[in-house]
Amino acid sequence: MKAGEQMEQLMISFVIPSYNEAGNIANVMKAIKDEMVQQQMAYEVLFVDDGSTDGTMIEIRDIQYMHPEAEYVSFTRNF
Q1: Residues 6+ apart with CB under 8 A from 36
Q2: Cα(10)–Cα(24) distance, rounded to whole angstroms?
Q3: How far, in Å, CA of 17 to CA of 7, rounded?
Q4: Chain segment 2-40, per-residue pLDDT in tens
Q5: What is the distance between the alpha carbons of residues 60 and 62, in angstroms, rounded to a whole number?
Q6: Cβ proximity of 46 and 15 under 8 Å
Q7: Sign of CA dihedral 50, 53, 59, 62
Q8: Are the C-beta atoms of 57 and 74 separated by less than 8 Å?
Q9: 70-75 β-sheet, strand order
Q10: For residue range 61-73, what is the model confidence (pLDDT) as tens digits?
Q11: Has residue 42 got a pLDDT over 50?
């Protein structure tokens, strides 16, 4: 790196498969956020709901509403 150049900050992307994981989504998000804040790293979290039938999508939407770094993809059935 030459003098005066700034190093571009890396972003870590987490892809979290989420099939019938109601009750675990908030804990996963908290663990990721706590570690990334401690490490002072940029991050994003992509939850992939693979046709859950237990309320997983409701929890994922709640997380996405509260955390701008969270996104999701939802499939209509388990592949």
Answers
A1: 12, 42, 43
A2: 27
A3: 32
A4: 555 565 778 999 999 999 999 999 999 999 999 999 999
A5: 5
A6: yes
A7: positive
A8: yes
A9: 11-18, 42-50, 70-75
A10: 999 999 999 999 9
A11: yes
